[in-house]
Amino acid sequence: MKTNEEKERQKQLKAEVMRNEKEKFLNNLPISAGQFKELFTFLDEQLEQEGCDDTLFITKSYLGSKGIEQENVIAWLEENGGFCDCEVLANVEEKFENI
């Protein structure tokens, strides 16, 4: 059986690993987390009105309107399961839940 000290140390190590993973994730984003959150809000609003056409049309429109270079962002989204606008919300947005 683990002592309270061992349990606390294990808890601290787990928290440190989580912080390191979060930091690594944030450092490897092609745009800021805030810009991603704005994109998700925009997609949510636009998809409710227009629906998804199985492309990244709305995402590309958002990026273009903000003057953001699309190539790296689109590649990153696809690497993370965002192959169309609704998949960006379904698969990518959840990666930002604890940020």
UniProtKB/TrEMBL annotation:
Pfam families: DUF2695. InterPro entries: DUF2695. This is DUF2695 domain-containing protein. The lineage of its organism: Bacteria, Pseudomonadati, Bacteroidota, Cytophagia, Cytophagales.
